[in-house]
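Sequence in, structure out. Go.
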Amino acid sequence: MPDPILMLGATAAALIAAALAAALGRWVARGRASGLVGTLAFAIGAYLGLAVLGVRPRWPLSEDQDRFLGLVLPGVLLVEAIGPVAKVPRWAGVGLRFAGSMAVAPTLLYGSSYLADLAGPGSALWPPAVRYPILVGLGLALFGVWAALEWTTRRSGSAVRVPLATAGAVAGAGLCVMLSGYASGGMNGLPLAGAIAGAAVARHALPGAGAVLLFGLLLAGYAFGELKPDVAAALFLTPLLAAVPEIGPLSRFRPWARTALALALVAAATGLAVGLTAVRFQAVAAGTGREAGGISADDYQQFP
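Output:
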């Protein structure tokens, strides 16, 4: 089982490093280029926090976590940085987000039993007739959440609401994945969540990074662990609760009140998802609820 003190230290290191980098970047840039500053600050915090855990992409990128950290994470940061730096047209930015969203699931699942015939011809868990609709659906879901978080950022006028909401959901996803038999994958979510929160000092929301990290953690937990689809779906949609105060009568509240309400809603939903996963884990550990294909406490302890 991962060391809780080590995970806490990695999360704190990521948060502090990202916050300091964002503050320094804002001072050097004199408040300009917040998108680039926020992206760089997040990258510094994320990879420093992962280094504290002893995690880094291993070449060749044969495992899902290697591709997650070596391809998916740099890719989404590049997309986040291109828009503010290159001043690309709105349609081009949407196209980049769409392409990135469609690529995440195939990248993470590449070479797995879901897509590859590892046990012989036709043995893939998702045959072509099922595989492509699922991958397209996953890509569209990620694109939709990404776009919704972009809208929430513009509508609310808050540079911290979406980062804190996604950071909370990512941290919750990491805990749920750890409790679902994939400890080495889930623990990566904690420093990544810290980096998202710390980078908010740059006053740039990074909605794409939050959405993609959350999606990647949950997909890995479901595909390579025992994360239940109901919890995965609920956690993936949780950051959208940050948009609720912008709808209807709630939009008349003061900005700070709307942000506080949004974060409370996200925290409550995340807490429920983590609590449900913990209850299921405890049921398995007590030997009263081992499900078909599930895990035991001994199984969990064997993960690095």
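Check: Residues 4-301 form one domain. The CA atoms of residues 157 and 166 lie 16 Å apart.
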